Amino acid sequence: MGRPRGDTRERILAAAFETLRTRGYAGTSTRSVAATGGFNPALIFYYFGGLDDLLVAALAASSESRLARYREAVAAAASLEELLGLLRSIYEEDVSSGHIRVVTEMVAASVANDALAPRVVELMEPWLELAEEGVRKATEGLPLEGVVSPRELALAAVTFYLGANLMTRLVEERAEIASMLESARRVAPVLDALLRGAAP
């Protein structure tokens, strides 16, 4: 008996993610993905239409599974310290899972690919919305509220994330980025107290 259609599709997505993680965008082809997953390259066209369609779908699948978990964590966070601790957790999980490599490869590829760029940007939008939700919670009742747009601060956070991704790819030693995120988490209660003390 053959594999169910859904199972085949998941195999292809997993193989695409793994190939992109290990070989990068430049080294990823329909043949290399098929070799990673042990299936006929024609299945990629049957299920996804083409290589870029598959890679976008693989990034979307990885992103969606993580978003579901982190939405709950952001909703449960009660302080700026917890939100910054969550940012560090996201970074560390992205490094260990390879998601950070896949994101970086797709963003880099989209710079030179006009058709790919809007699709990658579209996948960032749910993360912007999640970051905006976190910013609103962190700044509620503070002097920052109404002065700085939560959307702008969320965009700054996502921009930092992309920059951290790039640095992770350029520099083998990632301890400095993790240390910086941990320092931000430790400073958060002091910053929060200062801002609340300054509130009119």
Short recap of the structure:
The chain has 200 residues and is mainly alpha-helical. The chain contains nine helices and no strands. The model has no long low-confidence stretch (mean pLDDT 83).
Question: Mind explaining what this structure looks like?
Answer:
The protein contains 9 helices and no strands. Helix 1 (5-23) crosses helix 2 (30-37) and helix 4 (51-76) runs parallel beside helix 7. The protein is 80% helix and 0% strand. 22% of the residues are buried. The mean pLDDT is 83. It has helices spanning 5-23, 30-37, 42-48, 51-76, 80-97, 99-111, 117-139, 150-170, 175-198.
How is the topology of this model organized?
Layout: H1 5-23, H2 30-37, H3 42-48, H4 51-76, H5 80-97, H6 99-111, H7 117-139, H8 150-170, H9 175-198
Helix pairs in contact: 1-2, 1-4, 1-6, 3-4, 4-6, 4-7, 5-9, 6-7, 6-8, 7-8
Strand content: under 5%
**Class per helix and strand makeup:** mainly alpha
Mean pLDDT comes to 83
Count of folded domains: 1
Number of helices in the DSSP assignment: 9
Uncertain segments are none
Q: Notable features of this structure?
A:
single chain; 200 residues; mainly alpha; 9 helices; 80% helix
